[in-house]
Amino acid sequence: MTRLRLPFRTPTPAPRRRKAPVRGLVTALAALLAATALPTTATARARTEPVAPADFVALRTVAPTILEDIRYATAHNFVGERVDGYRQPLCILTRPAAEALATAQNRLLRQGYTLKVYDCYRPQRAVDHFVRWAEDLDDQAMKTEFYPAVDKTRLFADGYIAEKSGHSRGSTVDLTVVKLPARPTRPYHPGQTLVPCTAPQAERFPDNSVDMGTGYDCFDTLSHTADPRVQGTQRANRLLLKDTLDKLGFVNLAEEWWHYTFEPESHPDTYFDFPVSARSLTGRH
User: Fold this and answer.
1) Is the pLDDT of residue 87 over 80?
2) Over the stretch 9-47, which tens digit does the pLDDT of each residue have?
3) Is 163 a catalytic residue?
4) Phi, psi angles (nearest 5°) of residue 186
5) What is the H or E stretch that residue 25 is in?
6) Region label for 136, one of left (φ > 0), alpha (ψ between -120 and 50) or beta (otherwise)
7) Catalytic annotation, pick one of 99, 145, 163, 256
8) What DSSP state is assigned to residue 208?
9) Does the chain have fewer CB atoms within 10 Å around its N or its C terminus?
């Protein structure tokens, strides 16, 4: 058999593939890893933020008719701005304290009144904010309303500001009484003209509370629950609040007509720092 010889051809080399720039590939890969592997600052904070113990509840879930005017979640307070740790205007308390308030509310409703809370559980970071504010003697923006007769250098010595607060233990509440039907009140606007908390009720910042003789958080001896200068209707209103709460296990702080602690406290030796927010309650589940 005759073999055919094909002409010899030099193989054509395969075309070279262009390599992508290494630096661009590394940069893209790094960006991808950063986006997928590292959480955002907000997410990281949410994961590490402390949450409330199981026996803490939102007051509105236990006593929904109690009014809530959480001042530290607004700028209308002695600091003059939203206080650290108050993410939402929400009253959080230990369940025994909340249930006792619900009983007090039922008793007052039958008399034509409702409770209104100004502050409930207070995180330690908020107390720390108060301390920083008190140490800043140049910041006296809210003096006219909240401490008109007290020199700011005296706030620690006179006991108005301290490094710890019973509110942080979860069973202390600041509150007042409102006559029904509750009147609407206008909101506070930063920069508006301030009036001393010791002025007559018609002149003070409008609050639908009954007349207690001073405004809430008034740094003055006139705020002492049994101050003898407070008489007539003002004294009767303070006693209405005190008598109602005394019978249910609440103990009044003599220097503040609005301040009550439910006893025995669920956490007498623990100062919590979880934020005031619904997430602090739902996140524990």
Assistant:
1) yes
2) 444 444 444 444 445 544 444 444 444 444 445 444 556
3) no
4) -75, 150
5) helix 22-37
6) beta
7) 256
8) -
9) N
